[in-house]
Specification:
The chain is built from three helices and 13 strands, in the order ααβββββββββαββββ. The protein is mainly β and 201 residues long. The protein has one domain. An eight-stranded mixed beta sheet has the order 1-3-2-4-7-11-12-13, covered by helices on one side. Strands 5, 6, 8, 9 and 10 form a five-stranded mixed beta sheet that branches. It is globular and about 45 Å long.
Length: 201
Amino acid sequence: MTPDQALGFLRGPTTVEFLQAYQIKIAGRPGPPSQVVTYYISSDVTSGTEIFQITHDEHIYPGNFEFDAHSIYMVPGNAPYNVVALDGYVLDQNGPDLMVTGMLNGCSFLMKANAARTQVRCAHLRPAPGEGGARLNVRMVNNAGFHGDPGPLLVYGRANYPDTQGGRSSTVIGVRKAGVWGIYQQQFDANGAVLAASRIL
């Protein structure tokens, strides 16, 4: 499959089916800030099974396909922030129809959408030193809120992609279709086998 074909399947309406069939590994652009970034998607068959790599560096994988996406940077665990008034990045009707963020290995991804899902506020947080993903997940569920946008939010964290034997990581990606945002997750083990995929918002 060519990278541009893969991107088309990711855009849907086959998003979940594609994520269930092919591992997607995202090397997110370091921040801050979260912003629109040019990314590159490539087919990778070095393991014997085709997967797709998404990176902000066009030179890592040859034969890539260029696209723009909203890029949500990973807030370091030792960065100062107010957990009840987090800075979030808003996905709306402006800019690209895709959102990407770096691979989750204990991180929590936070979302708050309006009723129509035409606007979604997002943030991606790493665990604090010595905290671990499970404790970060609980802390976010119990305390997290967005600055200027009060109210409950959705936390996707270690409770959703448990660190089972052999390791488990997750990709989170956003797709806007007909003006409506969907946020999707994919889980895979250390060998790259896809364990689960679904829409989470």
